[in-house]
Amino acid sequence: MTEAGSTEGGAPTGRAARELLARADSLLEAARGVLADHARAVAAVRTALDPLLDVLVRSGLASIPVSRLKDVTEGRLRLGAVEQAGFTTVGQVYGASRHELRQIPGVGAQTADQALAAAGQIAHAVRDTVAVRIDVDAPDDATSALVGAVYRLVEAGPDVRRAVDGARRLAERLEPLLTAAGPARDRLRMLFTGRRARAGAREAVAGVRAAVADAVERELPLLFGQVSADLLREPDSPVAAWVDFELRPAEYYSLLAEMSGTGPDRDAAEGFLPSGIAGRVRGLRLDDTRLRVSLRGYQSFGARFALAQKRVILGDEMGLGKTVQAIAALAHLAAGGETHFLVVCPASVLINWTREIRARSTLRALPVHGPQRREAFAEWREDGGVALTTFDTLHTLPDAEDSGVRPGMLVVDEAHYVKNPATRRSQAVSGWSRRTERVLFLTGTPMENRVEEFRNLVRRLQPELAPAISTRHGAAGSQAFRRAVAPAYLRRNQQDVLTELPALVQVDEWEEFSEDDLRAYREAVATGHFMRMRRAAYACPESSAKLNRLRELVAEAAGNGAKVVVFSYFREVLETVREALGDGVFGPLSGSVAAARRQELIDGFTAVPGHAVLLSQIQAGGIGLNMQAASVVILCEPQIKPTTEHQAVARAHRMGQIRTVQVHRLLAADSVDQRMLDILARKERLFDAYARRSDVAETTPDAVDVSEGALARRIVEEEQQRLRTGTDERTLPVDG
């Protein structure tokens, strides 16, 4: 063996071994550093969270009569003396000391200890049910400390979990190996070590080399450094943490639910599946290495359900993240070696799917739509990725058999579009479904109300299950229905998982102009008419992409019995929406409607049992009116002033609202909508979020908004330049 180092039995020796072990030491130190930094960040959250939970627990105990202590001890506890001393609630006993209770005549050490133990058990049970809600309009020192502590974990992003898991596994692997490889660190020590110990050291060095190589291949050294730096990064100020919370509340609430140990009832979060199926799903470990987002518990379960059951319908209520659950399932399969996936959806959500896949995973998204669809399909067939196509495009492409591709998973969004097996779109989907082992149908429509429709969908997935499904299952109620069809169906409602949801879910609904939309838009751009550009997406109602998506959102809300408020700046747009939705729509509210009449319309809208739709100009509905009966808000177009949107959404998202509010903002890609958002996001949004937390902004909201005239001029000029230079791929003439 030379000092320069060589290999013996496949393991480096001499200097090479020492250099390898030194490198492994550094890697182990980095892994331990990540674990320590994460532990400190988690401890900081718990330190800030525990006092808030204690307040909630004590509040809950204050309403529980002291007699309930007997239930915990199965009647063995005698409370007469305690009650006579003025202790009427469990909270009073919980807050007392052992010494204080023993001062009560007739209460001995055993009774005091039993009473405190019983109160502690009830307190523990109450703690499992409470959840901290953060009020951005009433921040105090305690909630500011909590938001600031959670900020570190949120800012570090989804890489934290991967880094911590990787660090823990690497430390468990390296620590014993480095101990066993100890003799190889010193040439003389290795020389005077016994033969068996030398062989063990060489074997350990070989193991260290394999562990280091594996860590480097997985880019763990870079990941550890990045995550440690992120976990040590504090917000610039308390205000900065509050701003971040307002911009992405879902991440904060998800972490809080995880930290506090609270969350939805497990049976409800798992869709009331039978224990056998639920256990099998829980036993599947989800590989999230290709994901760029942290899943909530119920979302992880949904993805694993799709993987474990292979051919299923995911029917979660709108707003619970069916898309991200599907992406998680695709990412898991991709991490395991699958290369081709197919998503079929309505044209109205194709852009959203493309954006979501690219933002939330490392998967390659390839739209197969429009004039170049055959070329895109051929590229997907050759190179793989996630092909995204529409129902109407699918039947124009080579079918599953002719393509020679067997996707790792077929995802069908808005699956009720293929409920009729006789239609061309249904037949095209069925062709691919028969050739694909894993198929995931997505629909937010509650299937227990549409048993025949459900039976038709199940025939494509698990035909052996369809004959056993009858209308009596739907009549028996939602939970009974879900248990009966559990092998093929998972649905969770908002109230099932509410503790893991923020109070407000905001979704940008990106649409692609139809040809008529584009023609109207180009005409408005050519004339330099900013307001006409903003409403061009509704100029041709028969083919309007935005209006089509609005109908779908309203229909899904109707299926869930949810009330909807539709806001637009333009009275003309609201009239178009009213005609498209038909009878039974309230409004529109506008500036010309007297205040008393406005309130009558809102009262009538509120009084309707179940689903209803209210239309309102955003200026008229955004101030002074309460619309908390609505849990779905649709914004027909983005607003020039962010405060206008904030005020309008606040009409529904306010005290008294008992459901999570979903805000859907309808946006047209490559249009005035996108330009407005780019400018506002780049120059104004963050400042506005800060300013809205100041006294000046509370009294003069216009002070933090951009100049309407300047914004309009800039956007008109940019769009005229873009269309003149041909950067828009579509080339319809301005005059038709």
How would you summarize the topology of this molecule?
Blueprint: E1 7-8, E2 11-12, H1 14-61, H2 68-72, H3 80-84, H4 90-94, H5 98-102, H6 109-127, H7 141-156, H8 159-180, H9 187-191, H10 195-217, H11 220-232, H12 238-247, H13 249-260, H14 266-269, H15 275-282, H16 297-309, E3 311-314, H17 322-335, E4 340-345, H18 350-360, E5 365-367, H19 373-383, E6 385-390, H20 391-394, H21 400-403, E7 409-412, H22 424-435, E8 439-442, H23 451-461, H24 471-475, H25 478-484, E9 489-490, E10 504-511, H26 515-527, H27 530-535, H28 545-559, E11 564-568, H29 571-581, E12 585-589, H30 595-607, E13 613-617, H31 618-621, E14 632-635, H32 642-652, E15 661-668, H33 672-691, H34 695-699, H35 708-724
Helix pairs in contact: 1-6, 1-7, 1-8, 1-10, 1-11, 7-11, 7-12, 7-13, 8-10, 8-11, 15-16, 16-17, 33-35
